[in-house]
């Protein structure tokens, strides 16, 4: 009887170890190539000005309503129209300014219902590779969830984290770090 229990425990432990070993998840997603568009170009709509450095002051909701976004005419114009959002240090929470920017992006996406986008989460250079990959993924997921609540279907959105691998400013000060804590929006289809 004791021998039978020992065999059962041994087999159970082996199965548990094998199962736990198979549950690993890759932290880095493979980059999806962006196909070239062959759609005829219409007159480009004026793209909103993108700020090099994120403003520390939140944008008032009235300001967003006062300047409605002009929907781009083609997917090529959409690539130029989607704006980057920025995050605070060590955070994936959307600021008021980031939410207002996402509202503008939603207008562009609703005007182009066939377009699919990839949300790329990025971090500054501080922190380990693993930590920044996880933080970049949380940032991208945060933007994706907000876009879904605004009516953009999840099948049009994908996320990827680059961590600290794709800085827009290679500097080593707060101004550079603020530019690198961001989500980029890339049209993939």
TrEMBL record:
The keyword Lipoprotein applies. InterPro entries: Bact_OuterMem_StrucFunc, OMP_bac, OmpA-like, OmpA-like_sf, Pal, Pal_lipo_C. It comes from Geotalea uraniireducens. NCBIfam families: Pal_lipo. Belongs to the Pal lipoprotein family. It is found in: Cell outer membrane. Residues 37-71 are annotated as: Disordered. CDD domains: OmpA_C-like. The lineage of its organism: Bacteria, Pseudomonadati, Thermodesulfobacteriota, Desulfuromonadia, Geobacterales. It is a lipid-anchor. PROSITE patterns: OMPA_2 (PS51123), PROKAR_LIPOPROTEIN (PS51257). Keywords: Cell cycle, Cell division, Cell outer membrane, Lipoprotein, Membrane, Palmitate, Signal. Residues 1-16 form the signal peptide. Residues 74-189 form the OmpA-like domain. It holds the Pfam family OmpA. This is Peptidoglycan-associated lipoprotein. The keyword Cell division applies.
């Amino acid at each position: 009887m004791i021998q039978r229990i020992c065999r059962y425990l041994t087999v159970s432990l082996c199965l548990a170890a094998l199962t736990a070993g198979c549950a690993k998840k890759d932290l880095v997603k493979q980059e999806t190539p962006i196909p070239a568009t062959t759609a005829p170009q219409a007159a480009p709509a004026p793209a909103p000005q993108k700020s090099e450095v994120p403003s520390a002051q939140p944008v008032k909701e009235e300001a967003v309503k006062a300047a409605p976004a002009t929907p781009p005419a083609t997917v090529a114009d959409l690539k130029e129209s989607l704006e980057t959002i920025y995050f605070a240090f060590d955070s994936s929470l959307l600021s008021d300014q980031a939410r207002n920017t996402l509202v503008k992006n939603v207008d562009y996406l609703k005007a182009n219902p066939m377009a699919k986008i990839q949300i790329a989460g990025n971090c500054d250079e501080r922190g380990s590779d693993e930590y920044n990959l996880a933080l970049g993924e949380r940032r991208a997921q945060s933007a994706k969830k907000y876009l879904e609540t605004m009516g953009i279907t999840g099948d049009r959105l994908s996320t990827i984290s680059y961590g600290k691998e794709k800085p827009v400013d290679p500097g080593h000060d707060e101004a550079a770090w603020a530019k690198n804590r961001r989500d980029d929006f890339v049209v993939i289809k």
